[in-house]
Amino acid sequence: LFKLGPDTRVALSKIETGATTPSLHVLGKIAECLQVSVGALFNPDELPSVVARAGARPVLALHGRGSSVERLVPPGPPHLLEANLHTLAPGAGSQGTLSHVGEEVGYVLEGVFELQVGDSVFRLQAGDSFTFRSEDRHAYRNPGRTTARVLWVSTPSRSSTAAARQKTAPGKRQ
After folding, report:
1. Inter-residue contact 72 to 85 (CB < 8 Å)
2. 21 by DSSP, 3-state: which?
3. Do 101 and 154 contact (CB within 8 A), yes or no?
4. How many Cβ atoms sit within 10 Å of the Cβ of residue 168?
5. Residue 119 in 3-state DSSP?
6. d(CA 59, CA 149)
7. Rounded to an integer, what distance in angstroms lies between the CA atom of residue 106 and that of residue 151?
8. Residue 78, preceding bond cis, omega within 30 degrees?
9. Helix (H, G, I), strand (E, B) or coil at 83
């Protein structure tokens, strides 16, 4: 990781000391360099393998103030899927596009949620669901005025992941 340059070293130091919270995009880049899944960056022993009680699951501070990702399924073996509860404050999101090998499925529990897959942008609300191949560039955000909560299930990204922040032209709205 240190071969990536001085800016990366400063950013890693801030993440390690808790001075900043990394975006999902940054976590993807770190995982890619280490050739592990994003989930492997966190302690998989934090969750039991069968039942995870409310209030006892790890919650990651991601996407900025008022936002988080709650781990519902332990990352890595023996599990084939990752499941998270994304809580997004207004304006919060992935802060860039992501892509990796796999498949993703989600269900909007509350609020408004905007999902970009390729060049298409979809506006979802409570009760809507989505699915797409993870290899397709994707990004997401909460464009609403209230908190959005999304149940998100995916196959874990592996060492062949590619997370890339890309400036993209606004896509087609669906």
Report:
1. yes
2. coil
3. no
4. 13
5. coil
6. 14
7. 5
8. yes
9. strand
Q: Evaluate whether 66 touches 89 at the Cβ level (below 8 Å).
A: yes
Q: What is the pLDDT of residues 37-89, one digit of tens each?
A: 666 665 555 545 677 788 888 888 877 788 999 989 876 777 788 899 999 99
For residues 89 and 63, the answer to whether their CB atoms sit within 8 Å is yes
| Pair 147, 90: CB distance under 8 Å | yes
30 contacts 22 by C-beta, under 8 angstroms: yes
Q: How far apart are CA 162 and CA 153, in angstroms?
A: 19
Cα dihedral 57, 62, 68, 72 sign: negative
Torsion of CA 76, 35, 162, 38, to 10 degrees: 40
By residue count, the chain amounts to 174
Please give the single-letter amino acid code of residue 95: Q
Structure tokens at 109: 């529990």
pTM here?
0.68
Bridge partner list, 87: 68, 149
